[in-house]
Amino acid sequence: MNTLKTINDYLHSYRVEGRLVREVLQNCLDLSNSFDDKNIWITKADATFLEPYFLRLEQCDPSSLPLYGVPFAVKDNIDVAGLPTTAGCAEFSYIPTEHAFVVEQLINAGAIPIGKTNMDQFASGLVGTRSPYGEGINLFDPQYISGGSSSGSALAVTAALVPFSLGTDTAGSGRVPASFGNIVGLKPTRGALSIRGVVPACKSLDCVAIFAQNCDDAQRVYDVCSSYDAEDSYSRPKSCVNTFGGTFRFGVPRSNQLEFFGNSAYEALFWESVEKLELLGGLRQEIDFTSFMETAKLLYHGPWIAERYCGIKEFAMTQSDAMLEVTRGIVLSGFKPTAMDAFEGFYRLSELKRKSEEIMGQIDLLLTPTAGTIYTRDEVRNNPLALNTNLGYYTNFMNLLDLSACAVPAGFTPEGLPFGVTLAASSWNEPSLLGVGAKMQSISRYKSGLIEPSAPETVVLAVCGAHMSVLPLNHELTSRGAVLIEKSFTAPLYRFYALESFMPPRPGLVQVNEEGGSIAVELWKIPIEQFGSFFNGVPSPLALGSLTLIDGKIVKGFLCENYAVEGAKEITQLGGWRNYLLGNSL
Asked: For residues 201 and 212, what is the distance between their CA atoms, to the nearest angstrom?
């Protein structure tokens, strides 16, 4: 079992415990071998491939790189120099000499690619079963599908072989397998992550997706690789980051427009998720989902299917027999649409986009199931096209409408199968979506009793600023033996300020009880004999008080005296100090 699950876990092992990258990565690779029967990998890195990465990091201070020594997996339609890119088809295989742009950004930040992952061939499905390298197997029940097309990338994170991975998402491939694997799947704004070095599915719609154990890690990876790529014609400079927090409006499709395909357990879990958002300060608003459903139909039943053919045209024309039958049928159908069909499709999309924009303008985010149900592998084999279409009911419209989206875990059925929901918003809303998703995960963890009460000789302290992990003052906690036990949020009873008159700026948390927001905090367990010296080093206007967390739990934390926030910049809407720092770095 791997005790290193998150990016923080890996960084702690290097920066605090002093472990060596070679040792940590070898343990990671050894664990990976025990999952060989789950069809996660197409190509695994060997010692020769990894040696240059080890040599480079051995010359670096572990604190000098944000992803120092953190292993990650890459879907096998994304280039990693020196490893074959197959797109799930051996006959298509080639060995790139350059990394895909997003891979290069992660490597520059210190991360290490440890292999290429299994996928639905040419990213042509949401099921994870369309691969000559074996069907993706759900790790919670092997009878069920893993979801796809980024099956292996999601499974690698679910199994904790890596803390994050890269997939692609054109129709839901970065969200459906995340939902079926109980992990986070971020589908960024189209063009936010470069697609240079990615085998195209629908090039004008393709997105690189991020899988992670939690929303914080997804945000970290997004921050590293969401750089503008002037050599990618679809790359877009990052726009002003939209934010919402505190009280927010969320849309839910009308009851008669929700579809669970007979899965009553998923339906019950969805309504529980609605209640969670309301607990977080969300105001529910029923919306007409018609324009979204109609847009979804365009992706596979409109001219965009021709883009799948264009992406691999030469291979499809000369070696179509090398494809799986179901993949071949999908790709070759792209030869049929005419130019007239394309223009009619563009006209129809413009109409639907206008209608959907009107709806999205009335809400901050849209809440849907990620998938309305889950199927067994046998069911998908017997009815591959119709069931795959069902899985795209809530996902196929996203990129056509230029939305950002984040799939987050939202509970388990009585049979122990994961369920997930998707939070969607207009473009460039990734930080806000991940912030809300983190709060939903936090509620779920507390309800499941995953946080152990602190021992009598320790104090649980909530921190919300520079003492948080990897930030400049965190050493004041770790040097005293403090241990991070959980990430959480305050109840929506506080206002949050940036005290920019101090250098460097520091946060100010003020309790207001009404019209407050929910603010990200970390809970640290600090030995009681060390607490006094730590507290003495905390300057005014901060004072020790009691903070109420989102689940009603009360812990110690630092509140700001009211006089200090007069004229200060209020950042409650950002939901946390990291988002404030991110905004100032843009």
From this structure: 23
